[in-house]
Amino acid sequence: MRTKALALLVWMLAAISGLAQEGAAVPAPVRSALYAVVGNELTQYAVDTDSMTLTRRGTVTLPANPQYAWPHPSRKYLYVIWSNGGASYVGTRTGNWPSGDSHGLSAFRVGASGALEPHGRPVGLNARPIQLSVDPRGRHVLVAYSVPSGVTVHTIEPDGTVGREVPASGRLDLGTYAHHVQTDPSGRFVALVTRGNGPQPDRPEDPGALKILAYKDGVLSNLTSIAPNQGFNFQPRDVAFHRDQPWLFLTLERQGQLEVYRIRNGSVDEPALFRKNTLADPTNVRPMQAASAVHLHPNGRFAYVGNRATAVTQRNGQPVLVGGENNIAVFAIDQSTGEPTLIQNADAHGIRPRSFAVHPSGRMLVVGNQNEFNVYDEKAREVRTVPAGMSVFRIGTDGRLQFVRKYDVPTGEPDRSLFWVGFVPLP
């Protein structure tokens, strides 16, 4: 009996090892809350990765609309940037966004259940922040600004509150329209994604770039700038780092592509190792089709990219969506080369998936479909409304997404939108 039991144990261990080697999403015991932003409210949802459900809990109100949030490595604190300007306000569909006059950074203490409690005084910022992150050691908060393009670094005090701003070492090369800032896993450099702006009838294109800044004790200094073709037709938006390989993944918004770069000697090499289309049909690109965020699976074997289409036309006297792809592109990543291969485009079951999140267990993905849109139903010959909402997907062992359910989220259009969603591991 002992021999049979030992043999069974060996077989089970081998099976588990084999699943891990094949990139299976082996469930991890990670307790997390989901947070979602609508208007100036940040709402917590309890998460059940077995039933694939979200249950609304508490809500905190910020001085203005939250733009992004990022947890401290200790899981005890959550940092949130907010503003009364930018694309989370009236004008989202036309681009006529208010510049705003109230911007800030707030810290929250995260309770065992995920409840948020203000922690220290909010810190005022000089312009609308678009994104933030915390360095791997939990010593600094980095904040990116679009207009004017910029970045600031703020100390995190031992008690988790936000402290002083750290001055940069000299004048930084900050490009045009910064959109994402994040340190690499080693904490040696910062990737500042400066999107630029596409050409418009009344103005030429602003070139984009990936700015690599040296980072030491919170002090930033210029290192290198990656801008193929001098940044023209290169509109980067978001980055993600592989967990244990020297690869940086970068989305190109207007181009609808995913790039992979090699990290070496505390910086990023160019040219890109790979550039792949994110659309199911890149030969039929509709107006205002754009890529959004990129996130990697916790096992590092899959990458996920949002595709969003938002152009409208008139039908039956009402504005309706022109068409295009609103989905999540799923890539399998070759672990020896970093090459991504598109294996699925999963319908987002909503419009404008600007933000989405992968659960730390690797079992669940939630998409935030930002806005309510009208679509024309050809079969019924009528206009119907698709609400904003959160779409829940189960992640398979092969990385592919299986739609489970959608939670409609009233936004009070056009004044508010479902601007951001994110998982936060609980203490």
Main β-sheet description: 5 strands, antiparallel
- Count of DSSP helices? 1
Q: Spans with pLDDT under 50 lasting ≥5 residues?
A: 1-28
Strand segment tally? 34
The first-to-last residue Cα distance is 42 Å
Mean pLDDT: 91
Shape: globular
Beta-strand level of the residues, as a percent range?
A: over 45%
Class derived from helix and strand content: mainly beta
Residue share in helix? under 10%
* Rg over alpha carbons: 21 Å
Structure description:
With 427 residues, this protein is mainly β. The chain has one helix and 34 strands. The protein has one helix at 2-21; strands at 32-38, 41-48, 53-61, 65-71, 77-83, 103-110, 116-118, 123-124, 129-134, 140-145, 150-156, 162-166, 178-183, 189-194, 209-216, 219-226, 236-241, 247-252, 257-264, 267-268, 274-277, 289-296, 302-309, 312-315, 318-321, 327-333, 340-347, 353-358, 364-369, 373-377, 382-386, 389-395, 401-408, 418-425. Strands 4, 5, 6, 7 and 8 form a five-stranded antiparallel sheet that branches. The longest helix is centred in the first third of the chain and has 20 residues, at 2-21. The protein is globular, with a radius of gyration of 21 Å. The model is unreliable at 1-28 (pLDDT under 50).
Task: Summarize this structure as a short list of keywords or feature phrases.
427 residues; globular; disordered N terminus
